[in-house]
Amino acid sequence: MQASIAIQSLPKTDTEEELIRIVDEVIAYLKSSGLNVYVGPYETVVEGDDYDQLMDLVKEAQHVAIRAGAPKVSAYIKVEYEPDGEILSIEKKVTKHHQE
User: Where are the domains of the chain?
Assistant: First the structure.
C-alpha cells in the first residue's frame, strides 16, 4: 500500500437515527470502491495504491452525504502517502489488538 485515508463524516441531522443512516450510506459508498476498508467507531480508513482515487473517494463521500439528505456535511480527513514506498497497513496497525 502506498496511501491511506481516514475519513470521519459528520452530516448535520436532526436525529441520531438520521445521522447513522447517512453515515452508513457514506460507508457503503467507500466499501463499494473495492479497496481495503476498515470501519472504526469514529472514522473509516481506506487503503490503496492510487492516491488520486483515494482523494476522489474523499470528495465523493461528501456528495453522498448531501444526496442522502444532509443539508450540510463536515469531515475530518487524515492522509498518509508514500509514493515510492510502503505505508503501514491497517492489518499491521490493528490486527494484534482485535485477536481473541
Answer: 3-97
Fold for the domain defined by 3-97: Alpha-Beta Plaits (3.30.70)
Grid coordinates of 51: 492516491
Contact in structure between 65 and 73 (CB atoms under 8 Å): yes
| Separation of CA 37 from chain center | 7
Span between the terminal Cα atoms of the chain, in Å: 26
DSSP assignment letter at 97: G
Count of all residues that appear for the chain in the document? 100
DSSP class of 41: S
- pTM above the 0.85 mark? yes
Would you say residue 100 has pLDDT above 80?
no
- Element spanning 46, H or E: strand 44-48
Q: Tens of pLDDT along 61-83?
A: 999 999 999 999 999 999 999 99
Dihedral-angle region of residue 15 (phi above 0 means left; psi in -120 to 50 means alpha; beta otherwise)? beta
